[in-house]
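haha ok so turns out i had the wrong file open the whole time. this is the CORRECT one, sorry everyone. sequence first:
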Amino acid sequence: MNQIHVVKGNKLPIGIDSFRCLIANKYSFVDKTLLIHEFIKSSSLVSLILRPRRFGKSLNLSMLRYFFEKVPAETPSTINRRGLFSGLLIEQNHIQLFDTHFAKYPCIYLSLKGCKANSWKHMLRKLRNLISDIYSKHIYLESFLDDYEFQRFKSVLNCFPDFTESSLMFLSKILTKYHGSRCVVLIDEYDAPMEWAYNNNSENSNHEGYDFLNNAKSFFELLFSNLLKSNDSNIHQALMVGVVRVARSGFLSGFDNYCVYPMFSDRFSNHFGFREEETQTLLQYHPIPPAFNEIKQWYNSFHAGNNISLYNPWSIVNICEKKTLKSYSVETGGTKSIESLFELVNDDFKLNIASLINGNIVPRNIQKDVYYETLQSSPEESLWPLLYYAGYLTANSNGVKIPNLEVRLEWEGWFSRILTSKFPSLSPSSLLDLIINGHSETFVSKFPIVLQSCLTYFDVGGSDSGKKAEYFYHAFCLGLFVHARDKSFNVSSELPAGTGRFDVTITPPSAKDYAAILEFKVVKGGESIDVKSQEALDQIDLKSYRASIPPHVNKLMEIGIAFKGNSSHVVVRKLEKDGNDIWNVV
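then structure:
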């Protein structure tokens, strides 16, 4: 469990998911070859491993394929496959496995990540082409087949509609017969077609025969059950990887002989994602300016089995290459189904969103399965597991929370898009422009109007709504100002500065624009909203929050905001630096 090995190469493998390419082109990489040993010793015929996007699933499946696959004869492309594993952890620790398992099994490798389509008809055509490509890699079988087998093989190879649902089962039989050994099956992004069908189902469900989601569910139920159920004589082991655990009542209902390994499982916990020691070693090979504790705050804290805390590999490799702290996981996409459901959730869920954005743990047990059929009718129950499996939440014994700053930026973006979609005429992003340009008086007058209109939708309640309201106000402001990042501004929240922790700072990339420090207070009982806003402004000075502002900034707005129900009061102090770098009120 505790062994690590990071190979130092000439460059970083951004977007590389071929194990051969990784080794041949001398990329730096984290050695995950001990997955081979853990897969071999697994007692389950079919293993389903669930991890968020960009956690190394495709690369690991490629590695397994190069280890296990038996080919009919050595060719220039297969020569020295053994050398790909030279010096790696699997060779160092389990060299005997090369005698018993290396290149011993025909492989069926199916990647469903490219099955994107706007209708079932289009997706089925892609699937037939994909399976035809798999068959073409085994064209050497044709001379070995009898007449019936040959005709069936050619039918699938030519993308005819016959036998599609049983095509992979048939391939496993003839591969086993030819090679004299059972198959290893590797399926990448098993759930991708179902997510795509769900996201596009509503656009096609009114057309006869185009119930996208149900057609996809029925097809993959047959495809997978034919291949993996009651086919032990042809399957040695199978590994499927994906993001979400699609309900057993869904398209995996055709067989029940698989074991599921989410991130919280102990088995396989070490083989997807980067542990802290692996991340530190990779950063030693490719140094970057930010301190490690900043990198940890941005990209760590995905809780996994065996008490491991993981980093997102995609983000770490990108920061090593680009040397900039920013959100890289957002660029991978895949949030359409989540964002659409945020429009349907109840007020309690909205306040939980605000609490999460504020860094709190929400007491919640994650149900095991995602039911695509009920996402629209029960969005609150369905969203929790969807968010967890997709990596937008992490879980421990106390509940769920947002794992790190990178992921929180995505939540803030969702929150902001809810605001702008509900209230386009208010243009909340224009509040940011008022700050950037130093228009303090207009900001003071406009902010309460925007707040009051938005809180009608979010239904925060009155001043007795307690801590949840405070969480919402904070998240509301972060949502308003998230657009600053599109202008290369830095938006920070709840970080230490001076002798305390500021609520929000907005800092510009150049000296021509204003920076801002915002402090929030919630009015309780009989307190005065005017007095409370001044208290917030005074706290900025008393606790020296100005220390958080970078040296290049010459103009600053300090903003104190008090909230009471759906009302607010704003006070502002504008400052500029003199020639001695002393801040003066203007």
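The longest strand covers residues 567-577.
again sry for the mixup
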